[in-house]
UniProtKB/TrEMBL annotation:
Organism annotation: Rhizobium rhizoryzae
Keywords tagged on the record: Membrane, Transmembrane, Transmembrane helix
Domain of life according to the entry: Bacteria
Protein name: Protease
Transmembrane parts of this sequence: 20-38, 44-68, 75-96, 102-125
Length: 428
């Protein structure tokens, strides 16, 4: 979440204050070590009360923001209330003790860890063992917190707080290093992306094109064909038909589609040459991401071509960007390989990468640290970071890209409208 906020503000904003990132990173890491070695539980409890107050305030802002943005669904309401409950229990640690706070946090880690494992098992991406290790680490940490195995509750909470501060400090140190090496035109996309997946190998490394500072603001249009809309007579499979695929008449599957256009000369879309045939029981086989699942792909030249060849999109989101050159460089590199893989080289992965490149530095400002502080309490940024982490343990799909883009829209253009449903007529 911190990384995404830094990325949206961009390297140019932080270039003049890279030394603050360096000092902040060192300070956070030092505080993290201090939290680990603090000797008595009373100081820890006071610290937990202060931290819990901040978390509870942020949780209230999160829930309120969801309501105001009409983004409150059953799932997000449950997650928000859990977050609020954990925060309140943590804040009450000086009165009720560290034990209830540790148990509440253990429950949160258990839910998060268990929700990641099925996604990893479904996709089995190239470094799936690392993903399992990370999820297992969450479950182990939950066990340590709940059972007080080897470490007392107050000490385990101090350890967790120290680790959290150290990770944030490491992010700021990486930012300072990037600023030192790349200057105001250094790209932060490597800083944002994780190492579990290899989706970003086509993205040019290092500096962004300097000509972007003279470029005009161009319209970015994200087109989404949702799975349920893409096939007639689709059956309802909660969550599956939103984020994976749905099945229509005769068992015809559809995972939907995503494409992105900038101005009139740049259109990003990737599609398999042959349709994928599968049933609901074949999902583990279809979503396996091994290289033996690569198939020939094609690049439709325009949205008009896709409308004529198939059907118009049912959702559209529009942004503004000055980073068209960076997106064009990425697309030129990506098209050197036509291979399509449903979980490693698909239409949604192309669009997610391109959208992030287009949004890098969109919130640049003369006061980046103040803007970052405001972003850290923005509910949509928390949700977007959560969706992004889930995509890296599964894959980007049209449903995930749609939700992610809507959340980014709330962050970078708060007065703008979210995805608009297009009035379309099915042609087949």
């Amino acid at each position: 979440m911190l990384k995404l906020g830094l990325f949206l503000i961009g390297a140019r904003s932080f270039a003049a204050s890279a030394h603050y990132a360096l000092m902040g990173g060192v300070l956070l890491i030092a505080c993290g070590f201090l939290g680990v070695i603090v000797p008595d539980d009373q100081g820890v409890r006071i610290g937990l009360a202060i931290l819990g107050l901040g978390l509870a305030t942020r949780a209230c802002v999160y829930v309120g923001g969801l309501v105001l943005h009409s983004g409150l669904t059953v799932a997000t309401l449950i997650l928000s209330l859990l977050f609020l409950l954990v925060s309140l229990v943590w804040m009450a640690a000086p009165v009720i003790g560290a034990r209830p706070a540790a148990v509440a946090l253990a429950v949160a880690f258990t839910i998060d860890g268990l929700s990641r494992l099925p996604l990893i098992a479904l996709v089995r991406f190239e470094r799936w063992r690392d993903g399992v290790l990370l999820a297992s680490g969450e479950l182990l940490l939950a066990w340590v917190l709940a059972s007080e195995w080897l470490i007392p509750a107050y000490k385990s909470l101090a350890l967790l707080s120290g680790i959290s501060l150290s990770v944030s400090g490491h992010s700021l140190l990486r930012l300072a290093l990037l600023m030192h090496n790349g200057g105001p035109f250094g790209s932060l996309h490597d800083f944002l992306t994780g190492d579990l997946r290899s989706w970003h190998r086509e993205i040019p490394k290092g500096r962004r094109p300097e000509c972007e500072k003279q470029s005009a603001s161009l319209a970015v249009r994200l087109y989404i064909w949702t799975p349920k809309f893409a096939v007639a007579g689709s059956t309802s499979w909660p969550l599956v038909d939103r984020y994976l695929m749905t099945f229509g008449e005769g068992g015809k599957p559809s995972a939907g589609h995503a494409a992105l256009g900038i101005d009139s000369d740049l259109y990003l879309s990737h599609w398999p040459v042959s349709e994928i045939s599968a049933g609901i029981r074949d999902l583990p086989h279809v979503f396996y991401s091994g290289r033996n699942k690569d198939m020939p792909g094609l690049f439709p030249p325009s949205y008009a071509f896709e409308c004529e060849d198939w059907i118009p999109a049912d959702q559209c989101i529009e942004f503004r960007t000055r980073n068209a050159d960076a997106v064009r460089a990425y697309w030129n590199a990506y098209r050197q390989n036509t291979a399509y893989n449903i979980t490693d080289r698909n239409c949604s992965i192309v669009v997610a990468n391109a959208l992030e490149l287009a949004m890098e530095g969109h919130l640049r400002t003369r006061h980046p640290w103040l803007r970052l502080a405001r972003l850290l309490v923005h509910p949509a940024l928390w949700q977007a970071s959560y969706l992004r982490s889930r995509a890296h343990h599964m894959c980007w799909t049209p449903g995930l890209v749609l939700d992610y883009a809507n959340l980014l829209k709330q962050v970078v253009e708060p007065s703008g409208r979210a995805a608009s449903s297009l009035s379309v007529v099915r042609t087949r």
